Amino acid sequence: MSKIITATPRPTIPYEHPDAAMYMKLFKENIIRLRHRKSAYQQHDDTIRQCFANEEASLRTLCESLVSYTAEAFEHYAVWDYSHAYYPGRPSQQTARTDAIEGVSRVLPTLATWLYTQDSDAPQLTGLNGKPIDVVGIIRSALLAGTDPHHKGYWGKLHDYDQRICESADLALTLWLTKSYIWQHLNPKQQLQITTWFEQVPPLKTLDNNWQLFTLTVSFVLKDLTGKDWVDAAKYDRIKEFYVGDGWFRDGANGNYDYYNVWGFFYSLYWIDQIDPDYDPQFIRQAMSEFVAGYRYFFTPQGLPLFGRSACYRLSAAVPLLAAVDYQSDAITIGQAKRAFKTNLQYFISNGALKSGAPTQGVFEDDGRLVDNYSGPASSFWSLRALNLALYMGGRTGLWQAEEQPLEIEKGDFDFRLPAIDAHVIGTFKTKEVTVLFTTDYTQDQTPLSRRLLRQSLPNKVLEVISGRALRPKNNLLRKGITCYTSKMSHFF
């Protein structure tokens, strides 16, 4: 029997139910976006695609090329001292300004993890154009501008259920990763300015799902940097209530079992454990190992069975595999984790998953049917979360030098169940295909037509362009009643 988790009422989120005043704000921010947006930076799209199509390229070369590709484009799109970045793409249901904050918050952790591993006092990243990129200067400027109420790039006063709560976690992680390069060189007034902005976050209300981890991440960083304890144990305990066994979390009391386990729960829990290794290491590391023991079977050299929301984060599928390697878990070998991570990047990127300096809003190239309404032009940078872990732990674990070892699907057939989530996992060696079959329905209210991917109507597309607010159909196939997912991903096309 599935674990029963006590539910809390879902709050009314203003951006999900906009009134006239909200639409006016959306329209105004959209005009500002149009004024500040720059041409699409496509100078190295072919280069990065060819790089990842090269089977002989080393993993370290691929990762360094991806960092250079990302950083160079970020410099192009950034405005107001790197506090915002207006990337091209479909808007979210937030304002265009919030989308532009995502263009910073979701890129800086990649620059920060690169910086964390450098030995030089003044490290210089080189773009694919051969020009130096001042990573320290970029991150320092962004943090100071974004937290300064008198600066045009100020990230603003936050409120309950604010999307910026989500973004604050990545910004706080950036601050923690770069503390030896930036935080320790700021004067007391600058440090106070930055912590004053972040201290808005811990008391705020969030959605009752993986969002609890965002305020916890900020709290752990503040505690580490300032000694002031903002950590709310009740929020952490609530996250543990979502744990159902076999390494899996439910994303809220009535939420899905999906890849948010990978790029939401385990990514955040890994960083919490890095920031404060004494907090709850036994649970975090044990849950990670139990998850990886089954999840490693999902990977093939050509895709994996994607299910749930936010399919555009697909490049981060290997997050828990890399974390398990760092924990020296016996659930996976370093060689198999390396192969899973590398082939996952190569498969998607060589088939068009990077464009104009960012991961596309789709599975391969842009696909409006697969872009959730909460996703904006830069949301897909969560796709770099596995890259962030690789950069952070690769040097100390021997990831770069390790010999690749075969994935489970490259060894033979397999057939097993994940009882905690009512899933049946089947691997077919001959076709190199992995299928995940859910043995219970999420919804009984379904027809052949209701299960299909819907396209956005022309009137909604026009209104989306004018208002700058997403008006796309909801295409989470789990919630539509699809129960069978294959690594060949035919259900997306």
Textual characterization of the structure:
- With 493 residues, the protein is of the alpha+beta class.
- It has a single domain (14-492), classed as Glycosyltransferase, CATH 1.50.10.10.
- Helix content is 42%, strand content 8%.
- The chain is built from 17 helices and twelve strands.
- The chain has helices at residues 20-36, 45-53, 59-77, 96-105, 108-116, 135-146, 163-177, 188-198, 212-226, 233-241, 260-275, 281-295, 319-326, 334-350, 385-397, 458-467, 477-480; strands at residues 78-79, 84-85, 125-126, 132-133, 243-245, 248-249, 354-355, 358-359, 414-418, 423-428, 433-438, 484-486.
- A four-stranded antiparallel sheet has the order 9-10-11-12, with no helix packed on it. Strands 1-2 form a two-stranded antiparallel sheet. It has a two-stranded antiparallel ribbon with strand order 3-4.
- α5 runs parallel beside α15 (385-397) and α13 runs antiparallel to α14.
- The longest helix is centred in the N-terminal third of the chain and has 19 residues, at 59-77.
Number of domains: 1
Beta-strand level of the residues, as a percent range?
A: 5-15%
Annotated CATH architecture: Alpha/alpha barrel
Q: Please estimate the helix content.
A: 40-55%
Biggest beta-sheet profile: 4 strands, antiparallel
Task: Give the spatial strand order of the biggest sheet.
Answer: 9-10-11-12
Rg over CA atoms, rounded to whole Å, is: 21 Å
User: How many helices does DSSP assign?
Assistant: 17
From the helix content, strand content and strand pairing, which structural class follows? alpha+beta
Enumerate the spans where pLDDT stays under 50 for 5 or more consecutive residues. Answer: none
**What average pLDDT do the residues reach?**
96
Order of helices and strands: HHHEEHHEEHHHHHEEHHHHEEHEEEHHE
Tell me, what's the shape? globular
CATH topology: Glycosyltransferase
